[in-house]
Protein 1
Amino acid sequence: MSESATARVEHVRDDALAALARTESTEDLEAWRIAFLGRRGHLTGLLRAVGSLPPDQRRAAGEAANSAKSDLESALAERVDALAAGEGLNTGQDGAIDVTLPGWPAPVGGLHPTTLIVREICDAFNSMGFQVVEGPEVEWDHYNFEMLNIPKDHPARDMWNTLWLDYEDEAGETPMLLRTHTSPMQARIMEEQEPPVRVVVPGKCYRYEATDATHEWHFFQIEGLAVDRGITFADLKGTLYEFARLVFGQERRVRFRCDYFPFVEPGVDMSIDCFACAGDGCRICGETGWIEIMGAGMVHPKVLEGVGYDPNIYTGFAFGMGPERIAMLKYGIDDIRLFYANDLRFLSQF
Ligand code: DAH
């Protein structure tokens, strides 16, 4: 850059500073930034031209252009602060502070859709006498599997493949994992207290899973457990029916079908009649008229024995559901991955 090129840098710098002093708003600032510091901005152009100067001039010219650049950047930062301070104080046209002008609305956050639905579901069970309890996301194999009647070589473990922790106990085993469901809290709670037990357990779970529109590798579950003298399958049905009506509408009907989970006997899956088509069959219910919303069953005697409850005296029911899936149904969300993609366009709709 010749003498005149260095002078050009000075020139651009002075112009830029003068223009910056005239900016009044965020839009002005952005336009200014683009004009001088943007990819095709005046100063950027000069910086780029340094490379094509004769070698003996490059150094001085580069230094001049770079120092102008950092001057402009710090001037911009100062101007941003100055304008922000002025705006915050509600300056009137002449720049004087007018405390009677209305304030600038601050952007207010909202609750995450998962939080909203978890609260709604827990509130529904709360109204039926269930307490809300939370548990550890890092769990022992012992609680995640063994205490739930899923021994080491049990094929049902395939249903709950997960992420193991690189941790060994004294026996050289690696028994810690990211919990695959919230069911382990069943045993933890029963070990700690005598019946009656009525709890719901919301919390995060993890699985070694390929993700798609209906599968995430991390998600929430809400576990439920009720144990007392004389609890029957009719209590399970009544409680879950009431839940479905509270969350999905008073006109809901429910259906229970046999299913297998090692920690319940008998085990069921519960469906509600499709609220979109009222059971006629549509895209949401896969043309069946029914939507599966959770697994449930009568607590297996082995699980009760494992925690020291006498299965001849006590019986109970348990259930587990995925709140994101419930939210997807309720709010018409078609991809579970949206929940944790942190896209404000999605999140701000709730
Ligand atoms: N833990 C089960 C799962 O992750 C869900 C479940 C099914 C929980 C049946 C229960 C139950 O308590 O009784 O698939």
Protein 2
Amino acid sequence: MTAAPQKSPVDLPADASARVDAASQSSRHPAIVILDFGSQYSELIARRVRETEVFSLVMGYTTSAEELRAIAPKGIVLSGGPSSVYETGAPVCDPAIWELGIPVLGVCYGMQLMVQQLGGSVVAAGRAEYGKAPLHVDDPIDLLTNVEQGSTMWMSHGDSVERLPEGFVRLAHTDNTPEAAIADHGRHLYGVQFHPEVVHSTCGMALIRNFVYHICGCEADWTTAAFIEEAVADVRAQVGDKRVLLALSGGVDSSTLAFLLHKAIGDRLTCMFIDQGFMRKGEPEFLVEFFDQRFHINVEYINARERFIGKLHGVTDPEEKRKLIGTEFIRVFEEESKRLGPFDYLAQGTLYPDVIESAGTNIDPKTGERVAVKIKSHHNVGGLPKDLQFKLVEPLRKLFKDEVRKVGRSLGLPEEIVGRHPFPGPGLAIRILGEVTDEKLDILRDADLIVREEIRDAGLYNAIWQAFAVLLPVRSVGVMGDKRTYAFPVVLRCVSSEDGMTADWSRLPYDLLETISNRIVNEVKGVNRVVLDITSKPPGTIEWE
Ligand code: XMP
């Protein structure tokens, strides 16, 4: 995306070795490399390409033509970005990329950069264009095959191409943008001013398919089955006859990892499940029964409830709670791994977005600055310190979350686990505001169960990102029967979201709200009032602490 005047042009330090390392972590080379100019959509482009069953990776825009030659992708996509190409210090790619003979598709900023570097010109548009625009196709060949005349494309730019470089022709325009899609067929260079990757671009996937299959000649070989086969072989080769330890939380990532590793190395996998006492009702029992008894995966159940609740005695500050829980988790993990070990390897559920971010391409689309904002210290099993004396096994590091779910399903994990809502590492402890006590944990567990049951019964579970109860540390007056009550309120928090980064509160039917409220007040001792959180994120966060 290009936006009009930018405060601070992006100029990221290049870390070429980390990038090539990321690309070569893979036993297969990426068919499509996305060079990231700081767009909020770079990851989305990579996901869309993978939806066509073609393997893709995101790399920094400073990746040189030489590095790309070594990786040998079949195509390159230049992402959008928050800068203007004519600003001093705006990010540029290695111009030798145009001479590689590899097809390139520039998206928005990527197209403008292509135009500018090859001798055309880019100017501030008379009128910035944001939102949907009908596309008028002038030449329905290669890139625009099956892209319907008048189909909607998503625009988000303040700059426009004024003059095309030599060799380029127009493929499509919109009412406001004369050069909406362009090509130099001879050099296999293509550009689109719109964003084919966003869901509002109705024929965006057709365009991406045209690029990856017809222009780049990729094959549809990035399938779940192929991934599992490769990952199992890679893990066997890496681990040999050694033992692997996995911290199992019961979430989608660690559960999928457990199944994948069990398939690869069987009994040489040990899953450690630490029950800190902050899980939902029935969850610890369910996990042990499911993994250990039903699927015969070694699970060491560690009951550390007393230790954790003891640490939280008198603690009310949210960050302090999170830190204490995180530190205690690591302590228990270290002690227990010594007791159960020795282990040579530690399995971690690192996913591809973590890898991209740690490569330093995470840029705030609004300011153009690298994002390093810490809003809450997140603790989860993936956050174990690296100085534990283990080598790491991270077979999911090539995958996006939706791909992990597909792998999980394909390995036989039930919907109950694969489709479950996210649950934070510190669990119910950060949904009890103020001091955490056993009494409050019992209250919240009962309320939380009712919320989940009712949301499921209403058929809304899959449509909602998260639905849960929060217990407040205040009391209010109520009346039940003929008796005055003085008890806690429960907050109902239900949100829809794509990725947890932003969220909107869910508009639940009134009847459902009524049922949830009635059941909680009647069935959960200690609660006499239910309130609804109608705050989006931002400005709120999804969790209350
Ligand atoms: P917030 O509250 O920051 O949450 O809007 C965004 C998403 O992250 C989840 N969350 C966590 N997940 N460990 C996790 O694994 C944590 O410490 C943690 N804190 C929040 C939250 O449930 C939501 O899905």
Protein 3
Amino acid sequence: MDCKSLLVTGGAGFIGCNFVRLLLETEPDVQIINLDALTYAGNLASLGDCLDSPRHHFVKGSITNPELVGFILREYAVDGIINFAAESHVDRSITGPQVFVETNVGGTLNLLHEGRGAGIKRFLQVSTDEVYGSLGPEGAFSETTALSPNSPYSASKTSADHLVHAFHHTYGMDTVITRCSNNYGPLQFPEKLIPLMIMNATQDKSLPIYGDGLNVRDWLYVGDHCAAIWRAFQAGKSGEVYNVGGNNELANIELVKTILRHLGKPESLMTFVKDRPGHDRRYAIDASKIERDLGWRPQVDFDTGITQTIQWYLTNQEWLDQVVSGEYQTYYEAMYGRRGAV
Ligand code: NAD
Ligand code: DAU
């Protein structure tokens, strides 16, 4: 896929900003237009010196805005779109699902519609393993596993995947979908498990573990996810779905204990709190298709990745202070105040 002008949406968020940095470093012939609404989860500080690059054009705005998206596609002669922009936090989708449908479904539809109108060459949707629902103790999700989302967040991401498929099937649009497991690494907003636990532990605050702590997630370093997305964008087959995973399953409680060991903090900081409603028990990804067909493999093992991640948070207090100003305290009190210890 020859792409010289790429629209990246949500490029001020966790995965998007890591992706923008990767491309600026490795693809000197590609210009990036980064469209991000700068919600609570998007922060210009995450882009740092990327903002100085002449190959990176930041636009503040929403993927739900047809005039703006149409303008960007024509003004910058965009030939490809990678859609990271989303409301991404499951807990927030449980307390306020509307915006998840507006952004994740409406926004994706708008990008597809405008992208098709502008004749872009390829559209890649950054999706999630959560579209497959929850697993028992055995097995893993493959690309043919039936979609069975359980949360408002995953239902909105599934709807978006269906729209991407429909644009490929109905209009012959060139589309690719990637479905990845849980990411971790630098610049993740501290509402998600790993950065929240690092931040609370360093401040000797309690670490809220939902339910019995035995829910299992498959953790992948963010740089490996970004590499998989770029590989799928460049070489994936039109109309296909590619699962992306770390082959690295961990129960939440084991993960939190690992973080505490690294930080030299006591396990007594862990507090079991009321479970997330509808909490998916286990995710596991079979990533053999992208490994076999596109030659992608994770490069960062978990020990290295988590050590680097913890170190990053310890040395980037300024970034943390910036992103937790604003609405974070209100969110935290509302989310965890009502959970209470069990
Ligand atoms: P994030 O919440 O950190 O970032 C989302 C970004 O999208 C933010 O910068 C936000 O400002 C922007 N945004 C939100 N609404 C917007 C709108 N209407 N218009 C333009 N920008 C908007 O999320 P993330 O963790 O970086 O996830 C990125 C994508 O990857 C999402 O689509 C998510 O579903 C998917 N994904 C995430 C993970 C994970 O573990 N974090 C795993 C698999 C897939
Ligand atoms: O699987 C991919 C998905 O991973 C992405 O699509 C989502 O955008 C991303 O947010 C993530 O969803 P999860 O719900 O798995 O991530 P989260 O970090 O919120 O939670 C991970 C696990 O930790 C989950 O079992 C819930 C639990 N948890 C989470 C928080 C925030 C706790 O026990 N305590 C907490 O305070």
